Amino acid sequence: MKNIATMKRSILAGSVALVFGAFISTGVYADSAYDAAKDRVETNYENAKARCETLTGNDKDVCVKEAKATHESAKADLKASHKSKDARKDATEDKMDAKYELEKEKCDALQGDAKDVCQDRAKAKFQQ
What we know:
The protein is mainly alpha-helical.
């Protein structure tokens, strides 16, 4: 009986890890995709806990703790992935601002209409 319960927990943990891994491995999330992934993490956790209901005693306790640990791990990975997206977005914006400042500086070498055209081109190119 214990071997069957252990096997069930291993299968459960493996399948949950695969599902969570699929969410995390996709990398960066848009807000709606992030929210959907969060909902799936919660749903998978509830399903994993429900599967533990078929067990009794310590096997059930261990199964619930495994489901909780997998759930917390998936939430942490999802949160880290989402924060990474924000950090990458900020870095991209900072790079674009720096390139825009460089282009503006290059325009300073020009005069008159050429300078105006250069500055307008830089604004358009870097969406300023």
